[in-house]
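Long-time lurker, first post. I've been practising inverse folding by hand and with some scripts of my own, and I keep getting stuck on stretches where the structure tokens seem ambiguous. Below is the full token string for one chain I'm working on. Before anyone asks, I'm not after the true native sequence, just a reasonable design that respects the backbone. If someone could post their per-position residues I'd love to compare against what I wrote down in my notebook.
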């Protein structure tokens, strides 16, 4: 069993698109979905066809806390964290599982991301074009991976036993940004390997929740990033910023 955990804070229509893409592009019976509603207003309502577990916080406790809640409730041996502003492609989950045979943490490539997971594919105008282009990308990069120091966690897979060993996700970070990097670096300290799965392409709308919170005055996005970057540097030193393990000095 694989447990797909989708934290949600508002953007409810986008969440439905994400969940529909999971249903359309993932082998039935292979997974469970756990939606963690982090104080959305109105609250997220799972559709009648969805056999999803649902957890609800009355206020926004932050992404790391929601993730930890979801993992605690998970039945699966493998955990997949998926942002609600993502659209997955055909075969995405099977490919993640393939790469977990070689690495402890894996994450795909995408159209919107900082660092080495950002790739460019032909422009797509709608979901069906995205599926076609994502499939072409996957077929031309079958089995490819790249070991790195950390991945961006818009979508990331690992075993629940690793979370029990190296986790939980750092709940001092609110509302989010950097908790997945800390989890990767903690895992590497324990001898685990982290990789980009280059044969999985996922559409990521990107920063939807943070943009909404920034516009509403709940956060200052630049100050948030600077604060969290400083927090990571205090834990791991200034070299944490290098994603590529083969970087030159």
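-- Answer (accepted) --
I ran through it position by position. Result:
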């Amino acid at each position: 069993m694989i447990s797909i955990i989708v934290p949600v804070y508002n953007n409810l229509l986008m969440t439905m698109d994400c969940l529909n893409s999971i249903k359309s592009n993932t082998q039935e019976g292979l997974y469970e979905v756990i939606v963690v509603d982090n104080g959305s207003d109105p609250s997220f309502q799972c559709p009648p066809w969805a056999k999803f577990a649902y957890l609800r916080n009355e206020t926004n406790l932050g992404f790391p806390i929601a993730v930890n809640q979801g993992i605690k409730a998970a039945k699966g041996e493998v955990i997949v964290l998926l942002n609600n502003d993502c659209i997955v492609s055909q075969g995405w989950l099977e490919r993640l599982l393939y790469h977990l045979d070689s690495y402890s943490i894996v994450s795909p490539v995408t159209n919107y991301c900082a660092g080495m997971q950002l790739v460019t594919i032909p422009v797509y105008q709608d979901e069906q074009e995205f599926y076609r282009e994502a499939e072409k990308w996957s077929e031309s990069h079958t089995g490819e991976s790249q070991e790195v120091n950390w991945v961006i966690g818009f979508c990331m897979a690992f075993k629940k036993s690793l979370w029990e060993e190296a986790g939980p996700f750092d709940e001092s970070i609110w509302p989010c940004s950097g908790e997945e990097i800390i989890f990767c670096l903690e895992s590497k300290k324990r001898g685990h390997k982290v990789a980009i799965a280059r044969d999985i392409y996922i559409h990521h709308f990107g920063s939807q929740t943070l943009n909404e919170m920034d516009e509403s005055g709940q956060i200052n996005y630049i100050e948030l990033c600077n604060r969290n970057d400083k927090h990571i540097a205090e834990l791991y030193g200034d070299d944490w910023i290098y994603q590529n393990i083969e970087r030159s000095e």
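A couple of notes from the structure itself: The helical segments are 12-25, 63-73, 92-99, 127-140, 160-166, 179-189, 208-215, 221-236. The chain has one domain: 2-241. Happy to go over any region you disagree with.
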